Amino acid sequence: MTGAGLLAGLRTGLRVRAGRGGALGGLWTGAGLAALLGAMILGISAGAASLAPVEIIRELLSHLPFLDVESALTDRQRAVLEQLRMPRVALGALVGGLLSGAGAAYQGVFRNPLADPYLLGAASGAGLGATLVIVYAGGSDLGGLPLVPVAAFAGALLGVMAAYLLGRTAGGGGTAALLLAGVAVSSFLTAAQTLVQQAEIDELQRVYSWMLGGLGRGGWSDLWLVAPYAAVSLAVLLGSSFLLDLLALGDEKAVSLGVRPTVVRVVVISAASLATASAVAVSGLIGFVGIVVPHIVRRLVGPDYRRILPVSLLFGGAFLVLVDVAARTLVAPAELPLGVVTAFIGAPFFVLVLRATRSRVR
């Protein structure tokens, strides 16, 4: 049988499997949508200026044509809703979805449940880019364009590109070589960032404030800044779900089916890295989201990436919105760094995943 015939047969088999699990996948997709919607309503309503969910819904409906609905909010409440709460919650949903989707893709490419979106140097590259702008440009804007998100975005992409080129040239491009290259590049970029911080120690507080992650600095402009890149990266990741299922069969089987594993890995890693860079650019460094959510989703929906990726996007967005609510209400009127809260949740979970993975190896 030819590779094309095998691929057609496998597609048929996967359609049958998807059909059997379609009800389950649809159920969890609906649950993810409900969770995301509920989390966003809670995120918009929670805070010092209390906004009732009914008032929020009436305000949103009042902007729709052909509906005779009057808003019950005052001008001050409307300003809080439209300029503070809504962009923050929208950013949280977007960043959570991007990190979760990127984490699921990385885990599929490397066939490792411990892989996360920062694996290939995106975090260290973003940290160096943001640090350089904060220290030497004061974090200022250029023609109305905020420089810190742009520098973080560029640094994240450059870090991943450096890791990929190093793994490709020095190690042949295998997954193990890419992982080692990511460690090397991350260490180098982190060292460079530390050197810059030590040279300008007065700016340490601003640098660490950005690195610990948060959504309070963002606005609608940040959302529009990364929205095109987020849309492209998510479209590629969702479109590559079938290919990730083929990679799970092993490289030899994938090759026999007419798939080029190296090309698939490059495309998926590039899209996942773009998603990670987009998230980091507007939120700083928020860890563990890309490990915790995809791992839980995989336990819920099974190994099919056509279900894992979309459900991870939805639950990832809901998860980060809820974590942000906790970060800004637990010690109100102060606010906890978002990365600290996700670390408190993710670190114990990481240990559990590590123990489960070790048990399966034995």
TrEMBL record:
Protein name, UniProt field: Iron ABC transporter permease
GO BP annotations, alphabetical order: siderophore-iron import into cell
Sequence similarity: Belongs to the binding-protein-dependent transport system permease family. FecCD subfamily.
Cellular component terms (Gene Ontology): plasma membrane
Keyword terms of this UniProt record: Cell membrane, Membrane, Transmembrane, Transmembrane helix, Transport
Positions of transmembrane segments: 28-52, 86-106, 118-138, 145-167, 173-196, 263-296, 308-330, 336-354
Entry's localization field: Cell membrane
GO molecular function, one term: transmembrane transporter activity
Superkingdom field: Bacteria
Presence of keyword Transmembrane: yes
Major place of residence: membrane
Keyword Membrane part of the UniProt annotation: yes
Membrane topology note: Multi-pass membrane protein
Entry-linked InterPro entries: ABC_BtuC-like (IPR037294), ABC_transptr_permease_BtuC (IPR000522)
Species of origin: Thermobifida halotolerans
